[in-house]
Each structure stands twice: as structure tokens, then as C-alpha cells.
Write a structure and sequence with these properties.
Blueprint lengths: L1 H23 L3 H14 L6 H11 L4 E6 L5 H6 L5 H10 L1 E5 L7 H14 L5 E5 L2 E2 L8 E2 L2 E2 H10 L3 E5 H6 L12 E2 L1 H5 L4 E3 L6 H14 L12 H4 L3 H4 L3 H6 L9 H4 L18 H4 L59 H25 L3 H19 L1
Parallel strand pairs: 1-2, 1-3, 3-7, 7-9
Antiparallel strand pairs: 4-8, 5-6
Helix pairs in contact: 1-2, 1-3, 2-3, 3-10
Bound molecules: ligand FSX, iron/sulfur cluster (SF4) and FE3-S4 cluster.
Length: 394
């Protein structure tokens, strides 16, 4: 029966891929890879790529109104990378980008008209995407488009939107423009609208997190589940430190102490250079960033994470200040000690909990010890070990 189901879903996905192949002139293989990638990003079970393929092929493209305020346009840049025509084609096929100030051909009154027309034609159905923070000081005069303040524009456009997505850290929580002393009163979309919205923070955010959010909306007719900051759980439920490829070095106390020193060249942990991975929630280490391959994320390239997705960390804490350790959970690659099943505490689960608490306390002790070490300390320890061994042999 499972086999028949698999054959049926494969057939459906193949049929959808054939349509896309003709429509976008990209290969079926590329399209199916894209659907599997989005399904994996969303953490959906095997077979979900067929539902995604069908939704992308059949769905009426949702009208998207994209507003720009205080920002650098890096969010749009990362999404529409010229080096990756497949991604760009797919995005423009999945959504109908009816208003986007930096991409649209129209200007002036024509541009204003296309925004109004798209909003009227798709009333209650369009998706509003906001890029950039919104200045609220002095009646919002520090950012105006077409004579309207950003505050007025976002309120006007959100009123009849089916969903509001704040893309990038600026729109999600203020980002760089809100850095102290925040002279323009740069605020988030949620603060200005006075209600929670879906946020995709990052400066810029991973394009796949945005794309997967839109595909979720198309496939299931609703936005994905989020945390209390509006961040989709599929992307922002784990600390970077939990999935980092340098985590083994952290656990062993091997740290880069300066850019270019031996520890840095050996790929050691960047904690002592100010890496904010231990207090930043995002899927950068598992997803990579952009399309250049697995090392294409800050830590993979040898730069500490600056916590760009995290309010109160990115653009708030000094870059070289060491991160706050939020927990001492083992990395996700390690086998779990206990699986959570059912409800209520049994004797066994209480015992397991006690064991975990003990392990955490032990972990904290190791952590304290290791954080005091560096590459030099490690070398010294090795030398002492060797000296001790030699002595014992004499
Ligand atoms: Fe820039 Fe977007 Fe940073 Fe902000 O990304 S990459 S300043 S999050 O709004 O354009
Ligand atoms: Fe990776 Fe940074 Fe954690 Fe080190 S501190 S393991 S570099 S996330
Ligand atoms: Fe930003 Fe850190 Fe990821 S700086 S891109 S959250 S690794």
C-alpha cells in the first residue's frame, strides 16, 4: 500500500514538474530538487515534495506588495541573486510581484497607481512583504515614499492584506537602523501595526527561509507556526551553536584567539573572537547561506556570527564581546539521551531527568574549564603532558 502511495505521489510530482519545465524552461530535475529542498527546510515528512510541486504548479500566484523603508536592499538582493537564475525564476513564478520599488519599471505616479491597483484587485488576498525598519520619530518624516510616510504606507497596505511578512532584521525588530541612539525611532513592522506578524530576521535573511514560508502559505493555505517573536519555527527554533560545525572544537576547548592565528587557520571555535552563535537562533549552519555551498555562512567562512537574526544581540552587542551561553545542551549531532514520549512523569522519566540535570551540571563544569583554554593553553597542556610522560618513563 505504501508502495502504491509512493508511486502515486511520484507521478503527481512528475506531472507538476513537466508543467513547470515548459513554463519556466528549467529542468524537471532542478524543479524537483527545489521542492525536496523546501520540504526539507520546512521539516516536512518524505513525500511532501509532491504536494509542494503540485501547489507550486497549480496555485494562482499570490499578489505580493513589497515595501522598502530604512534598509540596504540586501534582503531583495539575497533573494534575487543574479548568479542563480533558477531561484530567481522560481520566485517570480511562485509570486506575482506587483509592487517592488527597486525592481519595478514604473516610477512616480505610475508606480503609485500599480500599488493601488494591485491592492484593489486583490483585496484581502495579497501578501504584504515589508523590508526595512520604520522611522516613527517626528511624525515619521525620516522616510517618505510618494509623499507618504512609511508609517502611513505600512498601515494602509496592511489593512487589506491576507498576510504580513517582515523580511530582514530591520523590519523584524528594527535591525541596524535602530542601533543606539536610534535617531529616527526606527521600529519594527509589528510595533507599528500593533500586532504580531511573521518575521524572517537576518541581515540579510536566508532567501530559502522566505521562500519556504511563501511555499508553506501556498501549499497549506496558512503561514507556518512561529515562536513568540513571529519567527517560523522550522528556521529559528535552534541555536546556531547547537548545529555549528566547529562545535567539537568548542567542547574540547580549542579556540581561535586572533584572526589569522594558528587556531583560526585550523578552523577552531570562534567563541573568543565574539561569535554570538550560543545566543542566536537561526538555521544558518544547517542550511548554508545562499547557494554557494555548505561553508557559505559566516562561521563557515571564518567569521564569528554577529547574531544578526537576534534582537538585543546583532547591532547591539559589541562585535568582539563574548556571547552569553544560553544553555549547555549537547550539539544536535549527538544521539539523544532520552526521547520525550507521552505525558506525565514516571519513575523512569524522573530518573532520566535527574541524569540529564546531572549531565548538564557536568557539562557546565567542563564548559567553564574549557572556556579558560585557548590554542596556546592547549599547546601548553600538551607540552606538560609530554613532559610528565617523559618523566614517568625515566
Ligand atoms: Fe539590508 Fe534588508 Fe540588513 Fe535590513 O536585509 S541586509 S539592512 S536586514 O532590511 O536590506
Ligand atoms: Fe560555532 Fe560560534 Fe558555537 Fe564556536 S561559539 S561552536 S564558532 S557557534
Ligand atoms: Fe547572521 Fe549569525 Fe547567521 S551573523 S547570517 S545569524 S551565522
Amino acid at each position: 500500500m505504501q508502495q502504491a502511495f509512493n508511486q502515486e505521489t511520484n507521478r503527481a510530482a512528475e506531472a507538476a514538474a513537466a508543467v513547470i519545465e515548459r513554463r519556466l524552461q528549467i529542468s524537471r530535475r532542478e524543479f524537483l530538487q527545489f521542492c525536496s529542498g523546501v520540504a526539507a527546510t520546512l521539516g516536512l515528512p518524505a513525500g511532501a515534495e509532491a504536494a509542494i510541486a503540485q501547489a507550486v504548479e497549480a496555485a494562482k500566484r499570490p499578489s505580493v506588495i513589497w515595501l522598502h523603508f530604512q534598509e540596504c536592499t540586501g534582503c531583495s538582493e539575497s533573494l534575487l541573486r543574479a548568479e542563480h537564475p533558477t531561484l530567481e525564476k522560481l520566485i517570480l513564478d511562485i509570486i506575482s510581484l506587483d509592487y517592488h520599488e527597486t525592481l519595478m519599471v514604473a516610477a512616480g505616479h505610475q508606480a503609485e497607481k500599480s500599488r493601488k491597483d494591485a491592492m484593489a484587485a486583490n483585496k484581502g488576498k495579497y501578501v504584504l512583504v515589508v523590508e526595512g525598519a520604520i522611522p516613527t520619530k517626528d511624525k515619521g518624516i525620516y522616510c517618505k515614499v510618494g509623499g507618504h510616510t512609511a508609517v502611513d504606507l505600512v498601515k494602509e497596505c496592511a489593512a487589506d492584506a491576507a498576510a504580513v511578512i517582515a523580511i530582514g532584521s530591520c523590519a523584524s525588530w528594527g535591525g541596524m537602523p535602530s542601533t543606539d541612539p536610534n535617531p529616527t525611532g526606527a521600529s519594527s513592522v509589528g510595533e507599528v501595526l500593533g500586532k504580531p506578524v511573521v518575521t524572517i530576521p537576518g541581515c540579510p535573511p536566508s532567501p530559502y527561509n522566505f521562500l519556504a514560508t511563501v511555499v508553506h502559505f501556498l501549499t497549506f493555505g496558512k503561514l507556518p507556526a512561529t515562536d513568540k517573536l513571529g519567527r517560523p519555527l522550522f528556521a529559528y527554533s535552534r541555536l546556531i551553536h547547537e548545529n555549528c560545525e566547529r562545535r567539537a572544537h568548542f567542547d574540547a576547548g580549542r579556540f581561535a584567539m586572533e584572526f589569522g592565528d594558528e587556531g583560526h587557520r585550523k578552523g577552531y571555535c570562534l567563541y573568543k573572537l565574539g561569535c554570538k552563535g550560543p545566543e542566536t537562533y537561526a538555521n544558518c549552519p544547517t542550511l548554508g547561506f545562499g547557494d554557494a555551498g555548505e561553508v557559505s555562512w559566516p562561521v563557515g567562512c571564518g567569521h564569528p556570527c554577529i547574531g544578526c537574526t537576534e534582537k538585543g544581540v546583532g547591532f547591539a552587542k559589541p562585535i568582539h564581546a563574548v556571547a552569553k551561553m544560553l544553555n549547555v545542551a549537547p550539539p544536535l549531532q549527538y544521539a539523544r539521551i532520552v526521547e520525550e514520549q507521552g505525558r506525565g512523569a514516571t519513575f523512569a522519566s524522573a530518573a532520566a531527568l535527574a541524569a540529564i540535570a546531572g549531565a548538564a551540571a557536568g557539562g557546565a563544569a567542563m564548559l567553564t574549564r574549557n572556556l579558560g583554554m585557548s590554542h596556546k593553553a592547549e599547546e601548553l597542556e600538551k607540552a606538560q603532558d609530554k613532559a610528565g610522560k617523559n618523566k614517568a618513563e625515566v
